[in-house]
Predict the 3D structure of the following.
Amino acid sequence: MLTSRHVLERPKAAVRPFALPALRHPLVSTLLADHRALLTDLLDGLGSPLHVVLPEVFEENVGRLRRAFADAGADAEILFAKKANKADCYVGSAAALGVGVDVASTPELVKALAGGVPGHRIGVSGPEKDDRLLALAVQHGCLVAVDSVSELGRLAEAARLAGRRADALLRSRTAGQPESRFGMSAAERDAAVGRCAELADHIRLRGFSFHLNGYGVAERAVAANEMIEHCLDARRRGSTSAELVDIGGGLPVRYVEPRLWSEFLAQDEPTHYHASRTFTDFYPYGGRPADQAVRAVMAHPVDGGESLAAKAGRHGIRFVVEPGRALLDQAGFTLFRVQQVDDRRESDGYAIVTAAGSSFSLSEQWFNSDYLPDPLLMPSRPGPDELFPACVAGSTCLESDMVTWRKIGFPQPVRRGDHLVYLNTAGYQMDSNESPFHDAPLPSKVVLRLDGEGTAPRWRLDGIR
């Protein structure tokens, strides 16, 4: 497994328009520099696009987050948010490391169990879960985040039928986001705590959770402090097992250098995109790394000065965290083969590169946005050193099928048969929006491991051991 001594390489932004180069893990750099022939063979043999997944980077990220909580003096259990990527290999790594998994559907729960994660390390979230999912969660002793009073009743009934006691969190709306569609209002939460006491033979109230949009450190710390207070109130009302605060996911990932990100935002305008497309919101690609965010949340002062971690420790409160993107940071990339190039430089000032595949395999458009880190060009043969502005389109018949709307300044002309590499795509990009449109098969995922310097990577298709 890679160690924390590895440091992300800081790419140099060349003097060219539209430059937003992606940070790159040393393992990714090694694969692209020293094992390009293997990547080419895999892309040719398995089809375009091809997702390359790197479980050893996932494992490194687990270690980094664990250290961040430990350094902050916080007791925390990590649950990998499986919705961020469907690859089986990450669940296998989680099981090997004693990390839990957060699931929100019956198939996700089945895959987590099949991957070796025991039920007591699985959290079940999502709004108004169906009865089948609740029954399976009860059978395996999972921790269920309950979204409403009615769902609490259905969970109790599933536990009664199974002759078991279900572990539950009550998901509550926060004061900062009271109109969230997830969780209970203050009155509903109060009623649910009372119902937990009435249903004590079937429900064990373990604590509280919440859902936040955004990546604000202060808001997450304030919300977590609210949940600590809810735990203390539940204890006063007889639920002595209320000891968990689930702070959700929402840990940021740094894709590009913060300085470049600020410069990009300052110069961004519609003419930088195909058809002058406008976007109102982007992922904060230049944000702080996840481990720094954890330390900041845990150190945030609450109640007049005490840190969140210190208050939790004083009251015997443990945290649960559900990172998805943060554990997948640098843990995969995506390869596309160039299918055609429509050179419109003389008329429009840029070309349209058509990739074999579609934007369904790079899912930022699901969020009405664009995946902004520059793709890398892997040319099939040397070309002249000249700026080649181009956007990247998918090969479907949809006008909106643009893999990259932004015009990229490629370092040489892009040609049919070249390859494009989109870095750091494991978190939500690979398969959140995948589709067999036009009867195209879903892209393959290849698991790569590099055992040491100078050795050839070992590869297998994900799901095949």
The longest strand covers residues 332-344.
